[in-house]
Write a structure and sequence with these properties.
The protein has 232 residues and is α/β, with parallel strands linked by helices. The protein is built from seven helices and ten strands. Strands 1-10-9-6-2-3-5 form a seven-stranded parallel beta sheet, with helices on both faces. A three-stranded antiparallel beta sheet has the order 4-8-7, covered by helices on one side. It is globular and about 50 Å long. It binds 2-phosphoglycolic acid.
Length: 232
Amino acid sequence: MRLEVLPAAVWAATVAETLSHRLRSRPHLRLCLATGRTPTPVYAALGADTLTSATVILLDEFGGLPPGHPARCETMLRAALRSGVKPRKVIVPEVDRPDLAAACRDFDRAIGQGGIDLAILGLGRNGHLGMNEPGSSVSAPTRVIRLAPETRESARGYGADPVPDWGITAGLNQVLAAGEVWLLVTGSHKSAILKQTLEGPIGPDVPATYLRDHPAATVWADADAAAGMSAG
Ligand code: PGA
């Protein structure tokens, strides 16, 4: 796994420019995108037309919040993008359907038609990827999942009230099959879990450690998150 450490002041612009460059050479890229605080400034820095031909697969979604709620992942993603930045197609986990098992199957089917070229992920404070919480196996499927306390706390921070206790997440089997994965990590509050991700034992206690076995994974960290680690 490659570690790129950037000064906090240029972190978002650099990641956004790298993504824009990628989209210029491969406009039809199939992107799986996380939401949350970390990637938001990257998405906000994307220029008009960047996603015009791309397919966006929303990594996960909270259950129990009404459509359009500001803490919903889809709402956060759309709010982050500047007006005029419109992906060709957006695939989301349909958490409002009565049959959640069918929603998971349909989400997987939609991903399965072309897979994921590039997954852009955040790092949970508990080491989760998407809502693949600690305890998730390397082949965990797309599923309804009960949220860990740290994830519920994040949802509270996004303005969710009541705080959801479940969601649908793309499985690790989907995410880890992506052609390329970027793990975005910013802030000193993430430095301990980033260190564990890079140096701790690979396994279900910290699902992000699975990325170390991925052939094309890059950590984009700002200097605050990477304090105490050296790029290599
Ligand atoms: P955050 O969330 O970017 O809001 O810190 C990351 C995550 O929980 O995956």
